[in-house]
Specification:
Elements: H1 11-28, H2 45-54, E1 55-65, E2 71-82, E3 89-92, E4 97-103, E5 106-108, E6 111-112, E7 116-119, E8 127-138, E9 145-150, E10 157-162, E11 182-191, E12 195-198, E13 204-208, E14 211-215, E15 229-232, E16 235-239, E17 246-250, H3 260-278, E18 287-292, E19 299-300, E20 305-309, H4 310-313, H5 321-339, E21 344-346, H6 352-370, H7 376-392, H8 416-433, H9 435-448, E22 452-454, H10 456-467, H11 472-479, E23 486-494, E24 497-506, E25 518-528, E26 531-542, E27 546-548, E28 560-562, E29 572-573, H12 577-585, H13 593-608, H14 614-624, H15 631-650, H16 656-675, H17 680-693, H18 697-708, H19 720-732, H20 738-748, H21 752-764, H22 768-779, H23 787-794, H24 803-823, H25 826-835, H26 843-855, H27 861-883
Parallel strand pairs: 1-11, 17-18, 18-20, 21-22, 23-29
Antiparallel strand pairs: 1-2, 2-8, 3-7, 4-5, 4-8, 6-7, 9-10, 11-14, 12-15, 13-14, 16-17, 19-20, 23-24, 24-27, 25-26, 25-28
Helix pairs in contact: 1-2, 3-5, 3-6, 5-6, 6-8, 7-8, 8-9, 9-10, 13-15, 15-17, 16-17, 18-19, 19-20, 19-21, 20-21, 21-23, 22-23, 25-27, 26-27
Length: 888
């Protein structure tokens, strides 16, 4: 059932019904012939369950011939046990030219519809079967399957595989569903100067004329999306100093941007941490990591051969602490998956959230405990967790656990709720059960289900057994019911002492009435001598609408109470009036960096909820941000300041106040850049903020001077990345001579990242004709441009301040949304729907989107969610504008 359907039944009832339905299909398929599989590109849960009820003990022998040309060839030999041969059997293979199909030694004329091969019942036997499929296929260029990229610098060809959620059949013939785990034995022929990397380390490499043949041993049992193969003339770094051999791979042309010592240090420390925490040694023998181009996501947890997006982890200057922390946390996240996701895998895609939630939780824990970034939880609070709060307050929010009807829907609900709310619920469960009980439950789960598939009930059951507690109520509240609750401290004082104190919990709406059990800390503070001094910290397990906190009765009357101190809970905090005013006026007096972070967030929540005027928040930021000495928190605050500036731009404000505010924000960032010479991390953070704020003629002239070398910033190196950022900014605001700067810089930097930067700078120009041309290219689903360039164009066409230009095509874009959604696939729409749906921060724009929401009921689930998100965020922008008290 679509999550946008009317709420005729509770989410838990629907989820349980879905599980029972899948079980019934699996049970009944032995006795009744299943319906023929739907003739489309996606695999339904029903068809997957029917197939896994018949097929078991799968082994693949895979042969690949890789030349570097746009196409490759392969032979899949699939051996498996079949419970019955009463009906045909399908094997997934996408958009290939099938050359031959041999079943149990006999060449057959199998049906192929461009999505899967159908083996006739008459050609199958009950028991062991072997199917051999020889084929040829084009490489992918959209980041899925076996992706191919030609490096513009040296013309070398690089390939890598990406199979999540269900794209292994874009590379080879396979039962492409997670509960048909299998072994994989690979032979790959490739050019002699290539490296070939897979789940296992090669047994040997043979000469094959001008090529080489790589032979790999059989893997352990894996779901198809966890297997991988990558090939190209990658540069290799190797480290054998730890318990497991480690390698790192990158393209030759970007090798100078890689700092292998950082990668190996975090990897070795992480493997030691997880070995100890899980009590199960790492199972895949070697640990390879590859930096790859054009990647769709941040990274992917392929067993023993993890891929990382170059764009997030290659830097043309020394890494800042923030960049190193990002590297460490993503390494840890993907490493956690090696146990939770690869070793034990969900049965169907509705369980994908648990993989990601657990990896987010464990990745943050490992970063905090095994690296120098001890404030990892503070960073998690201000980034991922806030995104989850935002998502969970929307009308189209969803439970953590939701049905997934087919592979077309596998990523519909992969969002901040999946990653960060899920991780937060696991953190909360750890507080409820105790850290050691939680760890024991996880260990028992991994031991019991190693190299198998498991369901949510299996995981929760292991934790419950370790705790000696029935967790079914907790599971219903947290995993099957959507929405974020709000807590507030309610207290009265008499004679300087707290008379009574309660926690008040409220539900988001009548439609989402669930009140949850949760353990938090309530902390009180008093102003003393210019500082905010802690009075009391009390752990409280609350439930229902009201929970008394007798431990705080009789304590000193506080100036500030924070009812989720140290961020134990997943709950929105509503500060009482006195605490809110203290937060506004005393930010600089709060020593605790995490508490200061949470108070800043309370102020920003006030803006987004229409309770604190945007101009008042900006005034607070101008006074306090330059004083911030915590590097992580400074990044969070400056991110909020940048969001405030985007609101001003999106509102189209050109008043005297708006102009003065833009100039004041620029001046703050510029002065802080100069003031932080000698502190590289802070200086670069402030200069990047200045770059993102620059829009006045004076600021743009200064940027032009920095680029030309006539203006210098002591201590700051203007590297290639910064040069492109400056050029992009100058083009965005149509500074004279800016187009020529793009051409000149492109000659200096002909790398793929340089090409992307040049493309973005060009499309950012406020030129109606250019916008129209690129909009046509984006909407042409048959374009031969790589998808990486199309994505760059999508996100560069309509920046916030170009509202008038965006409005010229707004009606057209919205009208064409259903047709594009129907014709394009999920990969395309995940980018298009989040970048091209028109918003205008006006009542008319909100009305237009509301009309679309009411009429466009047949959009795919992911696109419809993006449309509703756009409508609600556009309304929020209008509300924020109306709440402002600045002079017009």
């Amino acid at each position: 059932m679509s999550i946008f359907a009317p709420r005729a039944a509770s989410p838990i009832a629907l989820a349980i019904a879905s599980v029972f339905a899948a079980s019934a299909i699996a049970a009944s398929s032995v006795h009744a012939a299943p319906a023929p599989r739907a003739e489309n590109a996606f695999l339904s849960q029903q068809d997957a369950a029917a197939r896994s009820a018949r097929v078991s003990n799968v082994d693949y022998a895979l042969e690949f011939t890789l030349t570097g040309n746009p196409s490759f060839s392969g032979v899949t030999t699939a051996s498996f046990d079949l419970n019955d041969n009463a009906t045909p059997l399908t094997i997934d293979l996408d958009k290939a030219t099938v050359q031959s199909v041999v079943v149990n030694g006999k060449k057959v004329d199998a049906k192929y519809n461009n999505w899967f091969v159908t083996i006739a019942a008459a050609d199958l036997v009950k028991g062991r079967n072997t199917v051999v499929i020889a084929y040829e296929r084009l490489h992918s260029t959209n980041g899925e399957g076996l992706h191919r990229m030609v490096d513009p610098v040296d013309k070398r060809v690089y390939t890598y595989s990406h199979f999540e959620p269900a794209a292994a059949h874009q590379m080879f013939a396979v039962f492409d569903q997670p509960d048909l785990k299998a072994t994989y034995q690979v032979t790959a022929t490739a050019p002699a100067d290539w490296q070939v990397v897979s789940t296992t380390r090669e047994t040997r490499i043979e000469e094959a004329g001008a090529n080489k043949r790589w032979i790999f041993p059989k893997t352990k049992k894996l779901s198809p999306y966890n297997f991988s193969l990558h090939a190209g003339p990658y540069k290799v770094w190797e480290d054998k100093s730890g318990k497991y051999p480690m390698r790192l791979f990158a393209r030759q042309s970007v090798a100078s941007q890689v700092t292998p010592e950082d990668w190996f240090r975090y990897t070795k420390d992480g493997l030691a941490f997880f070995d100890n925490y899980f009590g199960i040694p790492y199972q895949f023998e070697k640990y390879d990591q590859l930096l790859v181009p054009d990647f769709l996501y941040g990274a992917m947890e392929n067993a023993g051969a993890i891929t990382f997006a170059e764009g997030g982890f290659l830097h043309k200057a020394k890494m800042t602490d923030a960049q190193r922390q990002s590297l460490a946390s993503v390494i840890m996240h993907e490493m956690a998956h090696q146990w939770f996701g690869d070793l034990v895998t969900m049965q169907w895609w509705n369980g994908l959230w648990l993989n990601e939630s657990f990896a987010s939780f464990m990745g943050t824990l490992a970063t905090a405990e095994a690296t120098e970034f001890k404030d990892a939880w503070q960073h998690f609070y201000s980034t991922g967790k806030q995104a989850a709060y935002v998502q969970d307050q929307k009308s189209n929010t969803h439970p953590i656990e939701v049905p997934v009807p087919s592979t077309a829907n596998a990523f519909d609900n992969i969002d901040a709720i999946t990653y960060s709310k899920g991780a937060s619920t696991l953190m909360q469960l750890r507080h409820l059960l105790g850290a050691e009980v939680f760890r024991k439950g996880v260990h028992n789960y991994l031991v019991k289900y190693s190299f198998q598939n498991a369901k949510l009930d299996d995981f929760i059951g292991s934790l419950g057994a370790a705790a000696g507690r029935d967790l079914s109520g907790w599971t219903k509240q947290w995993l099957y019911e959507p929405g974020v609750n709000t807590i507030a401290a309610n207290f009265t004082c008499a004679n300087g002492k707290v008379k009574n104190f309660t926690l008040q919990q409220t539900a988001p709406s009548k439609e989402l009435p669930t009140l949850r059990e949760q353990r938090v800390q309530v902390a009180s503070f008093k102003r003393e001598g210019g500082k905010l001094v802690a009075l009391q910290t009390v752990p409280v397990t609350y439930a229902g609408a009201t929970t008394k906190v007798p431990a705080l009765a009789g304590t000193a009357c506080p100036d500030l109470v924070y009812p989720n101190y140290q961020d134990w809970g997943f709950v929105k905090v509503q500060l009482d009036k006195r605490s809110f005013e203290t937060a506004r006026t005393s930010l600089a007096n709060v020593d605790d960096a995490l508490l200061r972070t949470m108070l800043w967030q309370s102020l920003w929540d006030g803006v987004r909820d229409g309770k604190l005027p945007l101009n008042e928040f900006i005034k607070t930021a101008l006074a306090n941000a330059p004083q911030e000495k915590d590097y992580t928190l400074l990044g969070d605050v400056l991110g909020k300041v940048a969001a405030a500036k985007r609101y001003i731009d999106a509102m189209g404000l050109q008043t005297a106040w708006a102009q003065q505010t833009r100039a004041a924000l620029e001046e703050m960032a510029w002065n802080a850049t100069l003031a932080n010479k000698g502190n590289e991390n802070f200086q670069r953070r402030w200069f990047n903020t200045y770059l993102g704020m620059a829009s006045t003629p004076a600021a743009l002239e200064r940027l032009n001077g920095i680029l030309a070398g006539t203006v210098t910033v002591e201590g700051l190196t203007i590297n290639q990345d910064l040069r492109w950022d400056i050029i992009g900014r100058l083009n965005r605001y149509n500074v004279a001579g800016a187009p020529a700067l793009v051409e000149q810089e492109a000659k200096r930097d002909n790398s793929d990242s340089g090409q992307a930067a040049a493309l973005a700078a060009t499309i950012l120009r406020p030129d109606p004709k250019l916008k129209a041309e690129w909009l046509g290219t984006v909407e042409n689903l048959k374009t031969e441009l790589p998808f990486s360039k199309i994505r760059t164009a999508m996100y560069s066409l309509y920046p916030a301040e170009q509202t008038a230009l965006a409005e010229q095509t707004a009606d057209r874009r919205l009208a064409q949304l259903p047709a594009i959604d129907k014709a394009a696939g999920p990969v395309y729409m995940r980018s298009y729907a989040t970048s091209m749906i028109p918003v205008g921060c006006t009542p008319a724009s909100v009305k237009r989107l509301s009309k679309a929401v009411d009429s466009m009921k047949d959009l795919s689930a992911g696109t419809r969610r993006a449309l509703i998100d756009a409508q609600q965020e556009d309304q929020r922008c209008v509300t924020i504008k109306q709440a402002m008290t600045a002079p017009k």
